Amino acid sequence: MKRFTGALFPLVLLAALAGLTFWLAKAVELPPLDSGGRFRHDPDYEVSNFTVRKSDETGTLRYTLTAKTLVHYPDTEGSDVQQPKVVFLKPGQPPVSLGADWAKLNSDASVVKLYRNVTLIRAATADRETLVGTAPDLTILPDAETAHTDSPVQLVQGQSWLKGKGLDVDNATMTYTLRSRVTGEFQPHKH
């Protein structure tokens, strides 16, 4: 009996090692690759020449977003947009349009990041000339009616101009705040 027990121990040890090896192989096995493209940065749809309109609770149009193309990516739920233009519309105020060569939108378009050749144009009024701003990038929060950048900015209105680093735009109050390193030249207003 002693001899049988001594021969059984190596077999039990070998079976335990085989079971442990099998368990370890399954534990470190990689999941199968998703062939549907959900985790790849491949577009799942494209839209051309589109317009999105946002109204307030009373039905008054607040802003529009137009663009040449939109390409959506399911892995990030974001979109790349060519030639975007956002126009804020406020009763009794001049329209303010913001555009660029391209943009990135988050999943619900609550954040629009403009890149390359960014322009900000506030239309002229009876007593003010058109205001034109330029920057390399600008982040817009359309629902809050605000925009900002940390980059260099230039604002021109008629013969007057300002340059600075960083800009905060509040369309609700129609204010444009340059953050730092501001230089400029103001010309007298002509009646």
UniProtKB/TrEMBL annotation:
GO molecular function annotations of the record: glycolipid transfer activity; lipopolysaccharide transmembrane transporter activity
Which domain of life does the UniProt lineage start with? Bacteria
Q: Which keywords does this Swiss-Prot/TrEMBL entry list?
A: Cell inner membrane, Cell membrane, Membrane, Transmembrane, Transmembrane helix
Transmembrane region(s):
none
Mind telling me which Pfam families this protein's record contains?
Answer: LptC
Q: Quote the cellular component terms of the Gene Ontology held in the record.
A: outer membrane-bounded periplasmic space; plasma membrane
Q: What NCBIfam families does UniProt report for this protein, alphabetically?
A: LptC_YrbK
* PANTHER family listed in its UniProt record: LIPOPOLYSACCHARIDE EXPORT SYSTEM PROTEIN LPTC
What is the designated name of this protein?
LPS export ABC transporter periplasmic protein LptC
Q: Which species is this record about?
A: Azospira inquinata
Its lineage reads: Bacteria, Pseudomonadati, Pseudomonadota, Betaproteobacteria, Rhodocyclales
Q: Which gene encodes it?
A: lptC
